[in-house]
Design brief:
Blueprint: E1 3-10, H1 13-17, H2 19-27, E2 31-38, H3 50-67, E3 71-77, H4 86-99, E4 103-107, H5 114-132, E5 147-150, E6 163-166, H6 171-178, H7 182-186, H8 192-207, E7 212-216
Parallel strand pairs: 1-2, 1-4, 2-3, 4-5
Antiparallel strand pairs: 5-7, 6-7
Helix pairs in contact: 2-6, 4-5
Length: 229
Amino acid sequence: MKTFLAIGGHIGDMELTCGCVLADRSLKGDKIVTLALTAGERGNPKTMTSSEYKIQKIKEANEFAHLLKGEAIVLDYPDGELPYNEEVVFKVAQIIRDVRPNVIFTHWKKSMHKDHEATYKIVKDASFLASVYDGDRLKGARCYAPVYLCENWEDRVDFDPYLMVDCSKGYNLWCEGLKKHWFIMNSESFRYYDYYTHLSFVRGCLNKTEHAQCFNIEGYQKFQRINFD
């Protein structure tokens, strides 16, 4: 059994961009953990305050994770105000050591959303600290996991579709999980469900599988052998 940790700026980010892979791995018996650094509460519907929507978003994150027999973690930073500082980097590094993932998913480095860019920087630093730090600010043994950067419509600048991952067996479970998120099914600004489910067909065509999701990796990783199994 392997452990997959998906770290997003908001609840829903990772569920959309690597959720089909997470669902596929869950069906294969792997452990799934999602970590949202903010709840993403400022995309609230007109009938709710952002505080009310935050409660609903956390419930949605848990429902998605539980469907995959996994765990959802949500930090308490405000949507749109995610800091990039030592405090949050060490907090994420501790979660990495606690979860002990074999693979980490997160955002690509360039985005139209500041929280996505901050998340990329936080995860890059936190994954490094989790693997090398030897001091009293982190508990537990060192933990290294490669970081895979997800394909997101908001993070398209210079994104290189380097790696396609077959997630065909997880597609139906993923779709069931996506429907638990209000904004994915009801947003008036973007057709999230249609875009990401159809994208899985497009990437599957390129991968010669029914469905796939796409990832980039840092240049230094591109000479390494990639194998999720």
